[in-house]
# Entry
Amino acid sequence: MRKYLMNRRHFFNSAFAGATATAMTVSAGVRDKETLVAEKDILEAMATFPVFCAHEHWGSISAIGMSEHGFRADCEAGAVPARDVSLWDIVLDPYFGGWIWTAGHDVTALARKAGYDDPFQWWRNAPQAMLDRMLPVIQEQELTGGFQCLRRGILALHQADIGTNDIRAWNKADAGVSVAYADIFRWYREAMKRLHIRDLIRPIHPEFFYDRKARADDEEAFTKPILRVDPLLTLWPAQCPRRDRLSALTGVEPRDAASWRAFIATLFDHAAKKGNVGIKQLQAYSRDLDYVPRSDAEIQFSGDLTATERRCFEDWVMHECCKQAHERHWPHQVHVGTHNLPRSSPLPLGALATRYPNMRLVLLHCWPYVEESAYLAKLRPQVYLDACWQVILNPAFLEQSLDAWLGYVPATKIMCSQDATSVEMAAGASVLVRETLSRALAIRHGRDVAQRPTLLALAEDILHNNAERVYGTQ
# Structure
């Protein structure tokens, strides 16, 4: 399995330490009842507030498949399914499917033991037998955020509850998914309308801007791309086919400092013409986020580099990308936490924020570095927080974050994307985000922290308006 996919799959399974239950509980008796009433009122008022999905991975499913550098949906504009999409494409995604795998269950091996090539063939030929075998596997994680997001999203979009052992519900969900994905981009737009998702941003690989399929225009009509720059930090080997191809696509061969700057600038210019809205990196999967400024003379731009030489190269390329983002006033999404602990702490990013003030830094996920992320957002005017993925990992993480952030960070700095692999997962995540946010605001209403109109305006900002201002999509 590719390292990239494994990184996406291996969530660091650490115990959630915190006083969330205490922090999110109001005094007993009548005040509890009043808070519940306020929560219901706020949730109903928020029901149609628009949502800004600023960091999504829709299309990261087996039916669309992989390319050489990652999921096809991230590498090819207009990528569509190569076969009929099954409910199990959605359930066995890189997130929840990956967590099933890390729990010790190889679903492909189970399918082969049953006499089938893969889980999808197993489902087509023996659905009841597969469900009977898979239910104990799924029920191990039935209470997790990943499953609950899938369950709530499939229920909202396909009117079928997979939180049951009834084969009829699973068949109904499967039929709904199959019909919907027969026209994937029409389905996305329909689902977004139902969910009140007004804006959608997807991180994509550099090749996405050049490799265009027949449905590229359909996808680009409602999706904004954000350029992943982490691949550029890997283009140092002497023999590097990806560097050679990007060189051919851009017309610039990166060999030394001057040509590398021209290569990055040309790539960014082309991305801008295609509607790109910023840059994104997930280097925290493999190293810390302390990017030291490097002089040109320090850099070996290709060859059999030592670990120290590779780090210098990575630092130099990242700073050149940040310079471009600074000059273009582009935001920069940075993966923080969840993996590679403790080296994925956001604290070193304060230096980048100071050095490139026109580049808004958006810290993604933030857990378990909730307070560290808040510290940077509090003290750096260009640092923002996006709690995306938190409810998918565990809704309690979002409760913890909101409790810490709402009393400390300017409300204009907080966002809640979904970070889902499918629109179904995004649907469930958006439902849980609304519920969690309404509960946090109701508690503050009960404490006389703010009045209802103020809290509702804050909710609309967190769900949509803050992201709209950061990414400049107005």
Remarks:
- Residues 85-182 form one domain.
